[in-house]
Amino acid sequence: MTATGRAAVFRGPGQPFEIRELPLPEVEPDAVLIRVSIANICGSDLHFWRGDAPLRLPADGWIYGHEMTGRVARLGARIKTDSRGRPLEEGARVAYCYFYPCGRCHACLALEPAACPNKIGRPLGPSQFPYFHGAFAEYYYLRPGGAIFGVPDTLPDAIVASVNCALSQVIFGLHKVGLRFGQSIVMQGAGGLGVQAAAVAKAMGAAPVIVIDQLPGRLELARAFGADHTINLREVIDRKERIALVRQLTGGAGADVACDFVGLPAVIPEGLEMLRAGGTYLEIGSISRGVTVEMEPAQLVWGSKKIVGVVMYDPWVIPQALDFLARFRDRLPFDRLISHTFPLEKIDEAFRASEWVNRESTSITRAALVP
Ligand SMILES: [Zn+2]
Ligand SMILES: [Zn+2]
User: Fold this and answer.
1) Distance 197 CA to ligand 1 centre (A)
2) C-alpha span between 359 and 352 (Å, rounded)
3) What Å distances lie between residue 84 and 88, 112, 325, CA to CA?
């Protein structure tokens, strides 16, 4: 009898997930089989579920999800240490990348693995080896070469779950735009990305940190994570007034850095206008291909503004994220980031509860599955 594990298979927008029992894969010498402890539902997962991100689904469905943590279930024969060179054993708690820079392209050659166009392959179906391709399952197969890091005992799983996505994503994004001590930053969106970015920006010495959203609960959380000022879209409904407010809060200049953490391209022109001359716009949220927005390039030219797009991160970021959590876990309410947990079978309910578009309010910050 072969060992098996359960996985939630996505059959397309508007359709329920299908819970399936799959065989555990034979672990290749440089791979690691991980028993998933917690898998969060990330904003980008919602795009696929909602159907606003075009997707070519395999015929037998897709196991997705990427924001997760777990324990080593089986180590490949050649793996003795984590990616920092620290001893790694079966049972160890780990954080890891869910993408695989190819090492054989111009971006990889330029030592920019996060920019590798091959780091995420086509979606694979559950019948294709190694079966466990995503977080919404009992197991995740870390493919050969995947970066993996031991997790300090002091950090609970619920806090570590966002390390390999939201937290590492914002640390890398703020690194890419060169955010420096004393610079002002405005963040559009106080979901998982925005809230954690507020904490990271604050720790980097940014001031003031301004966060914009339409849900009061999220703005309150952003303040708890270090935002100096929050702007509620529903209270300041005029776009010109919001831009003027940011200008006023930044000494009349506009922000050094502005960020899209919403994922709706419509917010981008406003964010660009909030920048000071010479400022930098960080684009992380808008992952849906085919969605466009009208903008005025002359604004970039006359304002000497830059737009920096970032998807995922270089693997060195994960240990920095873990160390950041270890330093700040007593000072910041990380335990509030996951507000609801669901067993794997309740994945449909978990997605419905996470949906925030067209909602008046939501009490959910992040839903997590405990498979
Ligand atoms: Zn994510
Ligand atoms: Zn590459």
Assistant:
1) 14
2) 11
3) 10, 19, 17
Is pTM beyond 0.85? Reply is yes
Per-residue pLDDT tens listing for the chain (371 residues): 569 999 999 999 999 999 999 999 999 999 999 999 999 998 889 988 998 877 889 999 999 999 999 999 999 999 999 999 999 999 999 999 999 999 999 999 999 999 999 999 889 999 999 999 999 999 999 999 999 999 999 999 999 999 999 999 999 999 999 999 999 999 999 988 999 999 999 999 999 999 999 999 999 999 999 999 999 999 999 999 999 999 999 999 999 999 999 988 999 999 999 999 999 999 998 887 888 999 999 999 999 999 999 999 999 999 999 999 999 999 999 988 887 899 999 999 999 988 865 555 555 567 899 99
- The string over 254-286, giving b where at least 16 C-beta atoms fall within 10 Å of a residue's C-beta and e elsewhere, is bbbbbbbbbbbbebbebbbbbbbeebbbbbbbb
Strand 32-40, strand 18-23: pairing:
unpaired
Q: How many residues does the chain have?
A: 371
How many angstroms separate the alpha carbon of residue 303 from the centre of ligand 1? 32
* Cα 40 to Cα 32: distance, rounded to the nearest angstrom: 20
Cα→Cα distances 35→6, 74, 142, 148, 339, Å: 11, 9, 11, 14, 22
Task: Please state, as a whole number, how many other Cβ atoms lie within 10 Å of the Cβ of residue 292.
Answer: 6
Q: How far is the CA of 99 from the centre of ligand 2 (A)?
A: 11
Closest ligand relative to 107 C-alpha: 2
Ligand nearest to C-alpha 121: 2
Ligand at shortest distance from the CA of 113: 2
Quick one: which ligand is closest to 167's CA? 1
Token representation of residue 299 = 């604004």
